[in-house]
Amino acid sequence: DLVRRASAVAFVDNTLAVIRDAIATSIEHVSSPDWLARVAAEVPAPFETLVKQLGVAPIPERAELMGVYCTGVTAALIDRDLLRQKRDLLGTMQRLDATAEPERYAQVQRDLVRVEAERRALRDE
Fold first, then answer.
1. Does the pLDDT of residue 44 top 90, yes or no?
2. CB 18 within 8 A of CB 43
3. In Å, how far from its chain's centre is CA 42?
4. Please, is 22 exposed, middle or buried when counting C-beta atoms within 10 Å of its C-beta (0-12, 13-18, 19+)?
5. Who wins on pLDDT, 18 or 60?
6. CA atoms of 51 and 70, how far apart (whole Å)
């Protein structure tokens, strides 16, 4: 579930966005031993080397803590995206006139509550 959610995170860096898209299209094979090769096959040729480099980059944790480390990194990525969504929604809310557009204002408030609930749930996982 975390990998699926992380594959929907927005990236400012276009290179990372391409890799994210390849991950998203290969998500059903995430547990497969050849998953990295599948992701590399999905990206345009100039990006293949970066995918392989990211796949073999050293992870600064002990082997027995690998799952906790990877979950933490993925959750932090998702949390940052939720924070960006919250910022965008707060900006939208500030520009809205609650009396002129009560339904839109209420929808933005509901979206804010949803994003904040997702952030809390993510931190509790």
1. yes
2. yes
3. 19
4. buried
5. 18
6. 17
Give me 25's structure tokens. 């299209």
C-alpha dihedral sign at 7, 1, 65, 122: positive
Confidence at residue 37, expressed as pLDDT on a 0 to 100 scale: 94
Helices (H) and strands (E) in the chain, counts: 6, 0
Residues with Cβ within 8 Å of residue 23, at least 6 apart in sequence? 3, 6, 7, 39
Task: State the pLDDT at residue 84.
Answer: 94
Q: What is the mean pLDDT of the chain?
A: 92
Nearest CA to 115 out of 40, 3, 5 is that of 5
- Amino acid code (one letter) for 42: E
% of residues, the chain, pLDDT over 90: 72
Contact present, 18 and 47 (Cβ < 8 Å):
yes
